[in-house]
Amino acid sequence: MSPSLSFRVLPGPAGDNYVTGVCAIVTLFRRAMETDAPLKSYLKMYRRRTGLSQTDVSYLIGLNDGSNISRHERGRRVPALENLLAYEIIYGTAAGGLYEGLMHSIKEVLLLRAIGLSGRLRRTPRSKARDAKLAFLTKLIASDSSTSNI
User: Fold this and answer.
1) So what's the architecture of 43-98 in CATH?
2) Other CB atoms closer than 10 Å to residue 148's CB: what's the count?
3) From residue 56, how far is each of 36, 51, 84, 120 by CA, in Å?
4) Which of 44, 65, 102, 112 lies in the 20 to 30 Å Cα band around 75?
5) Residue 131 has pLDDT above 70, yes or no
6) Confidence of residue 75 (pLDDT cuts 50, 70, 90)
7) CA distances (Å), origin 53, targets 58, 62, 67, 120
8) Spatial separation of the C-alpha atoms in residues 38 and 88, rounded to whole Å
């Protein structure tokens, strides 16, 4: 299955677009289409490894019944932060590992937005604040692209 790369081009000041660098975006899109997308959520897999039922996990987290766990596992509902942290404790895995597919999609969009913001900032007058932002974005783009499959 190929991942779908979705992002919005947000209008910027003076008609500029936040997402620029068409060659970079096309390259990222092609690389994303060549890889298999991870599952959106691995909650069910981790729960099954523990041998716990949805009702068991629901009780541990403090939810009324297993239907909420089912919704989380199927991606029908995003768990509240408290529940997500409880999943991390129960399964011994960080949220990014539990929701690897969602994390992958968020990274793709974030990288594209960072590239766009960087391009927009480069067209503004130089200042210490601008240069600090560009340095941060450059580091973010470099670290994100080196740790992801996009």
Assistant:
1) Orthogonal Bundle (1.10)
2) 17
3) 32, 9, 16, 50
4) 112
5) yes
6) confident
7) 8, 14, 11, 50
8) 18
List Cβ neighbours of 73 (8 Å cut-off, separation of 6 or more).
Answer: 41, 43, 44, 47, 54
Report whether 24 contacts 119 (CB < 8 A).
Answer: no
Mean per-residue pLDDT over the chain, rounded: 80
- The structure tokens listed for 98 are 């539990």
What number of H helices and E strands is found in the chain?
Answer: 8, 0
Q: What is the pLDDT of residues 1-15, one digit of tens each?
A: 444 444 444 444 444
What is the average per-residue pLDDT within 103-108? 89
CA 150/CA 140 separation, integer angstroms: 14
What mean pLDDT comes out for the span 58-72? 93
CA distances from 120 to 96, 123, 128, 133 (A): 29, 5, 16, 11
34-37, long-range: CB within 8 Å, 24+ apart, which pairs?
Answer: 34/2, 35/2, 35/3, 35/149, 35/150, 36/1, 36/2, 37/1, 37/2, 37/3, 37/101, 37/104
CA separation for the pair 103, 95 (Å, rounded):
9
Give the C-alpha separation, 121 to 115, whole Å.
Answer: 10
